[in-house]
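Hello,

Following up on my earlier ticket. Below are the two sequence lines again, exactly as submitted.
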Amino acid sequence: MVNGSDDDMVAVIERRALSALFKRVRDLSIELEAVSETNEILSDPATMQALARGLAQADSDDGVSPNALRAKLGWPAKSR
Amino acid sequence: MSLEVRIASRVVEEDFPNLPLEVQKDLLGDPDIPEDEGKVGALAENPDLGKPLQGVLRGLRRLSLTGRYRAIYKTFLKKNVVYVILVGIRKEGSASDAHQRAERLLQGASLKEILGAEASALFEAPAAVKKPTAKTRKAAQRGRPRKARDK
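Thanks for your patience. The regenerated structure is below:
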């Protein structure tokens, strides 16, 4: 720093370090969220069963379009 | 290029009838708002919208819906299809709660404010512990409390 004092420089370094730390905490919390959600699904037999059946259907049937589902509910169709 | 969204028959038959109207609207778009295509519309534009699951569930993604509901889906890029496999409520505490808490912590909120009643015991002052005196130590060594001995 050309005009700054040592204190200014320390403040800048601290801010950068804190910013990097916050980013890391945020990334870790996102990772933790994914692991936690995966564990939650794996530990719930009913959800796992539903998931397995849904995945099997993905191979064997094309499923239903959102507009077909809207029609079933009596809702108007949309462009997608 | 947008993808085609398909919803598994089991979701239509088993999950959808149990969903609150707000969640149905969140997924399919509000029927009273023509331009609202809901999360299915957003998924068609961006199949990476949901967060990836891990481990044996790798390849699947989950998308948060209103409240504690979620949709789990898989993208078949070769077929150009996003296939919604499951829609349901999360049973345990949402990890996004943890995420929100971390954010609040970074914004300067104290742990006590964030955790509230859930962890109030953590913040309670420990019960005062009396220092043992020579008399109480002797009584303990004899295997009976001092009060009983004094009677």
